[in-house]
Specification:
heterotrimer; A alpha+beta (about 80); B mainly alpha (about 190); C alpha/beta (about 400); A: about 80 residues; 2 helices; B: about 190 residues; mainly alpha; globular; disordered C terminus
């Protein structure tokens, strides 16, 4: 679980409704903000998302599949949008 | 078992699974509304509410398959294969049977699009999923119309219970809700967009 | 709101195509895709829309894709900016030359001008017809009118609008230079950047680098407003001290309390030493600021900076696209909390609450609107720290 992650979990904020399933399924990385939206527990990565450690990748994929709004995406780490 | 006994068994199986399917669909609708609301239920965190909603809907489809299958085999029901997909062309009580066909067509669309939703995209999936609000009443009416137990007390109580559950859940879902407050911070601005 | 001050862009202003040709010569077609890129790279031109991204890198990225699209961004959503409107009404041919050259450079056959409905868009519409008749343009130009909102000029909002949807920011899984309008590589350049491009193509990279600094070459158009004698659009070399920029607008009308650099998503500098800080990314970075789109607002002494910031925060909250939860909820909360602070509410929790809200919205949205708002508020809390302390005790350092 200490291997650097190659995948980044990003939220499509325009569709996220703060249902909170992802924060239940990935509590190591996500918590809820006062309005219910997912918040990176350890700070966001350069791409605006959360770098997923290799050991948590399976759980991250489950969270992506569970999101009722399809608001989560797991993509390879990319540099900050220009 | 005699041939007549077998036919009777099929009839009872068909009716039984029909009632069970309606009951399960009632649970599916109420859990679906709970999922959308983002609220946990006693003993069930949000992801579990969503997971149970999904599991029960798959169970409902399985029971529906048994219900339809036993009706196909039962000569009394006079069900033809075409009646499985095309509504209102049946022989026995075509109007009420047709509602059943319609409901099962809708249910199939709901389940298939949900299994493929990551590929279809949120917009398409959501558009089809709205038909759930049509599928349940259609199934309900089919159950009351085709079922030969409609006059029975136990079915009336069961059907009434299902109606109350769905009506209550749907009313709650469409009621306007004020902004949620957490830590008092949200009290300053507009509430969460739901 | 126009002012002629020195600079190559201003010198190239022309009332019509004939005057433009007389002043700047014909459109310098480069002879094919990619031919312009070395000159752009050598010039060191960076985007003048606010982000300051190296133009040659954007052009190169788009040129390497297939069926690209080029867009001249004249939306100018920033209320305190007027430079894009000035360019579109006084130098539309320069901008359109740049658009044609950019289209040639990336191999595009589709060019758009994206501007607010009004005098700017009208001016472009008039001259495009003339350029086609005179055989000046090779690539057809379509003018798309946009609503007058703060976020209309955001890149993904532009892409959405060009696809026929409302001009609101969208989540991007891929960079717009790779996949923009209908999945095609899309070049979005501010109109001023294209104007500079049109001049670099004529006079060369070395000419462009005469002015400005070695790291940040060239001139820029700034909009100076607030407590200055002649508010308006000025042209200046990058690296010019902020105070001298205000001087180009005929100087401050009196002693200044602070200067807002970079517009509503920018940062407050205290008047001293703010006026001496060069207008460059490098110099302003240590102040948490950047030149942005060249907007400079002078705050006179005797005006409360917290009150001014609270009003801007209210505007920014109102301009949210209301798509993203943290922005939709956080910005009005920030505006309301800052308003209470500016009104002198003696609540010691206000500062901590504001810090928390600002941290909560930063980086959590489909676009940079919450980020920019956070930057503005943080700079206000820093620069007006004395006022903050005074306000919590019911008084104000500036206003009577």
């Amino acid at each position: 679980m200490n291997e650097p992650g190659t995948q980044e979990l990003r939220v499509d904020w325009t569709v996220c409704a703060g249902n909170g399933l992802c924060t239940e399924l990935l509590p190591e990385l996500l918590e809820r903000d006062p309005w219910g939206y997912p918040l990176a527990r350890h700070g966001a990565g350069a791409g605006g998302g959360v770098i997923v450690p290799a050991g948590l990748e399976g759980y991250a994929r489950r969270a992506v599949a569970a999101c009722p709004r399809l608001a989560l995406h797991l993509d390879p780490v990319q540099p900050r949008r220009s | 078992m005699s041939a007549a006994g077998l036919v009777d068994a099929l009839w009872y199986l068909g009716r039984g699974t029909g009632v069970m399917t309606l009951l399960l669909l009632t649970i599916v609708v109420t859990l679906g509304i709970a999922t959308r609301s983002g609220q946990p239920l006693p003993g069930l965190p949000r992801f579990a509410v969503a997971a149970v909603h999904r599991s029960v809907s798959l169970l409902a489809v399985s029971l529906l398959a048994v219900h339809v299958g036993s009706m196909l085999l039962d000569p009394y029901a006079q069900l033809k294969l075409v009646d499985l997909v095309v509504p209102f062309v049946g022989t026995y009580r075509p109007m009420w049977l047709g509602l059943g066909t319609l409901a099962s067509d809708l249910l199939l669309a709901l389940v298939v699009t949900s299994l493929l939703r990551h590929r279809l995209g949120a917009r398409t999936w959501r558009a089809v999923h709205w038909s759930a609000y049509a599928a349940w009443p259609v199934a309900f009416l089919h159950g009351l119309g085709t079922g030969s137990d409609s006059g029975q007390r136990w079915l009336q109580v069961l059907a009434g219970g299902c109606l109350v559950a769905v009506a209550g859940a749907v009313t709650w879902r469409f009621l306007p809700r004020g902004p949620a407050t957490r830590d008092g911070l949200a009290a300053v601005g507009p509430g969460p967009r739901r | 709101m126009t002012r002629r001050s020195g600079g190559p862009l201003t010198a190239a202003f022309a009332p019509d195509l004939a005057a433009h040709e007389h002043r700047s010569g014909p459109l310098p077609w480069q002879g094919g895709r990619g031919r312009l890129l070395p000159a752009v790279e050598a010039s060191g031109l960076t985007g003048r829309g606010g982000a300051g991204f190296p133009t040659w890198r954007k052009l190169t990225a788009v040129a390497s894709g297939s069926r690209p699209v080029v867009v001249a961004n004249g939306a100018e959503g920033e209320p305190a900016s007027a430079k894009d409107l000035t360019l579109l009404t006084h130098a539309p041919h320069l901008v359109l030359d740049g658009l044609q050259l950019a289209a040639e450079a990336v191999g595009s056959d589709r060019a758009y001008v994206y501007a607010k409905a009004g005098p700017g868009a009208d001016a472009v519409r008039r001259v495009v017809a003339e350029r086609v008749t005179r055989g000046w343009d090779r690539y057809p130009v379509e003018i798309i009118a946009t609503p007058d909102t703060f976020l209309a000029g955001e890149e993904s909002a532009i892409v959405a609008r060009l696809e026929g949807r409302p001009a609101r920011p969208r989540h991007r899984r891929r960079l717009i230079v790779e996949a923009g309008v209908r999945g095609r590589p899309t070049l979005v350049q501010n109109v001023e950047t294209l104007a500079h491009l049109a001049l670099i193509a004529r006079y060369g990279a070395a000419w462009f680098r005469r002015l400005g600094t070695p790291a940040e070459p060239g001139t820029f158009l700034g909009t100076v407003s607030g407590a200055c004698a002649t508010p308006g659009v000025v042209e200046a070399p990058l690296g010019l001290p902020v105070g001298e920029l205000v001087g180009l607008a005929d100087g401050p009308t009196g002693p200044l309390a602070a200067i807002l650099v970079g517009g509503y998503h920018g940062a407050w500098l205290p008047a001293d030493p703010g006026c001496r800080i060069p207008m460059s990314r490098e110099a302003l970075a240590s102040w948490g600021a950047s030149p942005g789109a060249g907007v400079v607002i002078a705050l006179p002494a005797g005006t409360c900076g917290l009150d001014a910031t609270a009003r801007i925060a209210g505007y920014l909250a109102e301009q949210s696209a209301r798509q993203c939860g943290p922005c939709l909820n956080g910005l009005p909360a920030i505006a309301a909390t800052l308003r209470r602070l500016a009104d002198g509410t003696p609540d010691p929790e206000l500062v901590a609450r504001l810090d928390r809200l600002v941290a909560l919205v930063d980086g959590r949205g489909a676009c940079r609107h919450p980020d920019g708002t956070s930057r503005l508020i943080r700079s206000a809390m820093r620069t007006f720290a004395g006022d903050v302390a005074a306000h919590l005790h019911g008084s104000c350092l500036e206003a009577a």
